[in-house]
Please model this.
Amino acid sequence: MLEVAGWLLDLYDDPQDEVALWLLAEDGRRLRLRQSLALTFYIAGEERMLRAAQDYLRKLPLPSELFRTRRRDLFLPEPLDVLAVRSRASDQAALFRQVASRYPDLTYYDCDLPLSLHHAARHDTFPLARVRVRCAEDGEIFELQTLDSPWEIDAEPAPLRVLQLEPDCDPSHAPPRALLARFERCSYRLPLDPPRPLLINLRALLVRHDPDLLLTAWGDTWLLPMLLELSEQHGLPLPLNRHEEREVGLREERSYFSYGQIVFRGQQVHLFGRLHIDHRNAMLWDDYGVDGVLEAARVTGLPVQVAARNSPGGGISAMQIRTALQAERTPAGGILVPWHKQQVERGKTALDLLRTDQGGMIYQPIVGLHRDVGELDFISMYPSIMVHCNISPETRLPQGLGPSPEPPGLIPQTLAPLLEKRVAIKRRLAELPAWHPRRKHYKAFASAHKWLLVTCFGYLGYKNARFGRIEAHEAVTGCGREALLRAKEAAEDAGFCVLHMYVDGIWVVRPDAKRPEDFQPLVEEITRRTGLPLALDGIYRWVVFLPSRLDSRVPVPNRYFGVFQDGSLKVRGLETRRRDTPAWIGAVQMEMIEMLARVEDAERLPDQMPALVELLRARLAELRAGRVPLEDLLVAQRLTREPGEYSVPSPAARAAAQLAAVGKHTRPGQRVRFLLLRGQPDVHAWDLPELPNPERLDLSRYRELLMRAASSVTQPLGVDQAILEAWVEGAVPVALLEPAGANPPCMPR
Amino acid sequence: MGRTMPSITQAFIEEQEAFGRFRRALRRSDQLALDDLFASARQHLAAAAYASHALPMETFLLSMLLEQHKQVLHLRAQLEALHKERDA
Model:
């Protein structure tokens, strides 16, 4: 008998082991252990059919234990009589597939859930949990004890050995010539050709360092599939998996439609006994990196390799499933997790639809420049509402913003610890000085949590979500609108003018309010009136709300920039924030905003105008002289359909057609990067093998795009694109403007 | 006393109340301006009653316009008088 403590790296079902678990032992060993785990799925339906299914299952060669029981379906008022099918973990999928294809009309529950969630519900485990196991010499686990919880803020990080591996250039752009590998402080360069030494060297690296995490670029879409093929061709096995008996897991690419956008997910390569993360194929990588991926896995309970590639929606869904399964251990009993949810919206009157079928409250801001503006934000507004008002598919819908008399439902139960952790981390971040090394981790955690919380709301209204219910979703936005209106009323009662409201934020100004303590009573009053937590996000020295591009009289809700009192910038909806804007244009626009940000007194903003014009002249001269790198001029647009389906091909579609001509296919949802050229063709796809002649760049088009972006910045100072052009060309001398009379806030009566 | 039709004052109050949600979501300064508009329409309730239009709100809207236009005429006359005074 052995007793080992360590971190749980991964677990998965396995035909030999039943459940295979990888442990990073405290003494540095990497152990593969095994555990038996009986899983149960449930079937409901007409008695006669249920009996037939029971007989059918009994005669199958796969062993299973069958019994009748009663369990809760959240969408039904009474517990349900169900047939329970219990089997070895590794047999469940096969049993379910057979009975479901024979009896498709029965209702199935708990049948396709990730093994890690079943394990979590039974043993409180989660990826990289600290555990202590007692097991036999051959690795059979008798007892497993989880020592920490995903809600701890300062859990001891697992000592992961990380091997980074990436090609020397983007393989979709040009054929790479070598792989770059890095382990701790050692770097290696492995030429791709000839392949035999490459395979031998890589094998040696894997054996010597035995990494826990393989961190690649394009590992899913190019690198690992290429290596596997080479290893096959040359008969040189490559120990990418630590679990040698298993084959590397490949999952295919797909395009799908989500939130009004076509999204492309590349092929995936999953390893057994090691983790593989391809940071080019990881969701939201740029937002949160490795720390964020590991945190997302810990709090959702999904395996790291899944959490890295999953959308946050999948994560929140997993958290709900875990809560449902864990209810097994409460007196109320387990909650059934539907396979295909069959629940329809109840009928609504036209007025109901008018009133309820709305999103968040979005105001039209008062366009122009404003000084000493406070921005107050509700903290995680929608999740807070779900918890505060107990909004869940099975609870009664709230009337107004009050707390609910019922015990917390599934959704509030799932969210409450996550919200608490988020608030605690935010508080910790506010206390830590800027240089503190833990800040980076906390920031990554905070952003992982943020995405989970944000999508949780969406999942409540998604008809395919297992615990979604559209009415509950509408109740949340309804409460959100109510909270914002109460905030507006509280602000106006306190003599503030409301400049803008946007879903969960409110911008207010009052001539005598300049310091945080001037806004504090309002913060408290709003919290009192709504019951929801709210914080002063900051006080702007000045902020500019921009009008619509098409009509300068029309305000648009989410185009603004401003400087907080601490000097930090906030920019929304401008070209520099848009992912299709060429990097060069975004950078120049940002330079302009930073120049303005140095001005403390908004009245002195127009003094910067000559310097801004100088800056634009200098940048345009660089463009004409060919000193702007081509990469910085790339426009990146998303394909919205198959290239052949466009009736009038967009520039992106024309670029995709060029790629198709050389055998590189792009799918809807993928971004195509291209340069703008003069004459025909007028675009040049970046991923074509050759570079275009730089003389063919459409400089006047780039100039136009730059001037348009620049005028967004100068327009609030009374300088529109036409004046700016005249100044930049030198046709008209730069005239100093009148000091910017900061906008009169709300019109006095 | 039974009525088959609501009185014009009742109709007016109902129409104004029907805009309660609209009013609530306005900035305070705009709320007050809106109240002014409704108040100005009240001056023509008798005419609105006499018109017995099937959609009384149209009459109320026209009453608001009427009052606005009177204001414009009045202000224009004042402005012209001021100009004359200055140029004289």
About this structure: The first strand of chain A starts at residue 2 and ends at 14. The mean pLDDT of chain A is 88. Chain A has 19 helices and 27 strands. Chain A touches chain B at residues 361, 485, 488, 492, 497-498, 746-749 (CB under 8 Å).
